[in-house]
Amino acid sequence: MRLANDARVFEEVSDAVDEVNKLKGQVAARWDEASKFDTEKDKNSFRKYEEACDRVKNFYREQHEKQTVEFNVRVRAEFKRTVHARMGIWEAMEKLNTLVDDSDPDTSLSQIEHLLQTAEAIRRDGKPEWMQVAGLVHDLGKLLYFFGSEGQWDVVGDTFVVGCKFSDKIIYPDTFANNPDSQDPVYSTEYGVYSPHCGLENVMLSWGHDEYLYHVLKKQSSLPMDALYMIRYHSFYPWHREGAYSHLTNAEDQRALEAVRAFNPYDLYSKSDEPVIVEKVKPYYQSLIAKYFPDVIEW
Does 119 score more than 50 pLDDT? Predict the structure, then answer.
């Protein structure tokens, strides 16, 4: 009888602890578990570039003509020797709030609304705090627009590999015709300057907010590598959605692919959600920011 009573008490205590943990947000879904958010979304109205307005089409034409190897080498050298600003994460979000992304056919929301929509969708699905934070900050690299960018073409939009043949899996592939690299005897070949299966860590992606933020945060945050993968590759649609560049990727890139595919639905499909009331959720996200970032970041 005592054993039965002890077992009953144990179950009651265990259930109570589980309930408390749920309330405290400590029992979280695995980051790579199937997303309920994803399965409930109607995806037919997103990334319809064939129906995009002229603003979006003109953006990609300019981006595809100007993202060259020469530009990417130069801008990375400038990044390494320049600090544009010193500010915290929330201040950076507020600064970004005046930008509307010319490359995005799915929304005209301000950036802070999109960041909060993404983070809240991840939070509602019970995913780990670090993944919520990845959603909160994933587009902060768009601060480049205020740091002397040449336009939006070197800040936003889908990313792709430079230094080898431009993939036909990139949206509007015909618009690379006026990019000088498309006629270069090396850069226009399948492998270009790279070796087979060299790994994405060893290729040069078109410069923009993903690549910039990845390099900022890998040295100035305690985010796990899976979060950094989500940040770095979330706009790399030719790879994570269309399956391009398999001749360059290696076994280590599989983990990154799983991470960005787990993250992508929250970034893409949250754009149709109702706007978030900023002041209502601000205290929660400020507490998460304090866990993963210093008070001031060098941008």
Answer: yes
Residue 263 host element (H or E): helix 253-269
Helix, strand, coil % in the chain, rounded to nearest 5: 55, 5, 45
Q: How far apart are CA 15 and CA 269, in angstroms?
A: 35
pTM: predicted TM-score of the whole model, two decimal places: 0.82
Q: How far apart are CA 111 and CA 152, in angstroms?
A: 14
Residue bearing the bigger pLDDT, 8 or 129: 129
Q: What is residue 182's predicted lDDT score, i.e. its pLDDT?
A: 98
Nearest in space to 125 (alpha carbons), one of 259, 28, 12, 212: 28
C-alpha distances in angstroms, 66 versus 43, 54, 259? 31, 18, 29
Cα within 13 Å of Cα(44), Cβ side: 1
